[in-house]
Amino acid sequence: MLVMKFGGSSVADAARIRRVAELVTAASGPSEAAAPIVVSSAMGGVTDRLFAIARTALGGRAAQADALARVAALQRQHEEALAGLETVSVDGERTASVDGERTAGTVDTARGRFDRYSAELRDIVIGVSLLGELSPRSLDAITSYGEKLAVELVAAALRAEGTPAEAISAEEIVVTDDVFGNAAPDMAATAARAARLSDLTRAGTVPVVTGYIGASPTGATTTLGRNGSDYSAAIIGAAVGADEVWIWTDVDGVMSADPRLVPGARSLPALSYVEASELAYFGSKVIHPRTIVPAVAAGVPIRIKNTFNPAHPGTLIGADASGSGAVKGVTVIRDLALVTVEGLGMLGVPGIAARTLGAVATTGANVLMISQSSSESNIALVIARSEVAPALLALREAFAPELRRHDVDAIGAQDGMAIITVVGSGMRGTPGMAGRFFSVLGRVGINVSAIAQGSSEYSISCVIHDGGADGTGGAGGADREHTVHDALRAVHREFIETQ
Ligand code: ADP
Ligand code: ASP
Ligand code: MG
To answer: What's the predicted TM-score (pTM) here?
Structure first.
């Protein structure tokens, strides 16, 4: 059995959804033992707009009309896409090849659901604006509608192709905890519910399931975090024991760097699970970092493919790593801050690192990297710049006695930082990797503020200034782009293009 996940770029308009329906139909021919399971994201940009609707609603009664107008616009967008499915072929030509009666039935189902979902969304928006309160739970309820609307379109497009399909909300399949905005699945409970998907596929019907969302055991709608549809596909693939999970996007698989930033980036034929998860963790946006977890546990390979170039083999992510070169990819994460705790009085005192991390954890900040000087007089950690203020407060409180005694001299943060990481299992046991990384950054005039190597030796990360050649930090603008792009390209040239 195959799980096929389509991202927001693949379902961004009617013509693209038609293309998706063709790809799925081709994979559900009579020679296949079972139809594939489809997982879909919201149409590109829709989730962002739902977040904007939620924020607007919070503006109170005055902003309510604006928020409701945006809900109506969203409904219109989906109705127009549905109308487009009837008449516009993938290459933009008008076509009469769609069976009139079958399409009429299909469109009615989807249109009825659009009405219902819009009415529900309007009610939640009114509730938020009247109360002036937006809980994480309400935010998940609001942002879940992008996927719920999109699966109706994909299922309608499949039926118009003559492929039986049923749109299903993952609220009925994926059981999660109640950590709204970043929920984690209960795999056993999900597997029990996913049996319904296997039954459908065996009967030749394509289940079209919403990505990104799930429901808590009490039935509250949850989301898995931004970009979470990849994770949904892996959860569902593991739950049904799929042979493979295919993630369809708008590039030829996982590439050696973000192709928008590094023109020389190339497609990687194969990655190990560990390599893929390090690339994702350190900022390669092509898959959600947690996608690998259920796939590894269930031993399901993941293939990344290009909806717009389906003949390209893309990237196979599995247990084995292969391919040449020690380094497979270079990534960057931006808008970070380096928080440091330093003082000679910390030397040899046990538990400083644990207390530092503990204090930061109480603020909910996500620590991306930790680096401690070997003298133990300095510990540095990297977090998002938006998380700095509460983290500093918590640290100053936790170390108040040490600050008074001057055992800790300074607790501070430097923002406008970025992490550049090189990833590849072949670095293990290859001497001199960190040295080469430093010297290439040095050659383009970039100073390294901290370094960390994964204990697995599958990655090395450097923290650099993201603030222009003069290192003023966080200034934004052209200089800022310049430094990070120069660094990425230089590192890519050194480790990948010249291999
Ligand atoms: P989708 O809508 O399919 O979920 P995303 O926008 O989430 O697509 O992810 C695909 C994009 O990720 C690509 O268009 C590319 O610009 C970006 N990207 C960043 N790093 C990489 C990488 N290492 N390999 C491939 N794509 C990358
Ligand atoms: N639609 C969600 C988002 O934009 C999930 C996804 O696309 O993967 O974050
Ligand atoms: Mg994505």
So the answer is: 0.91
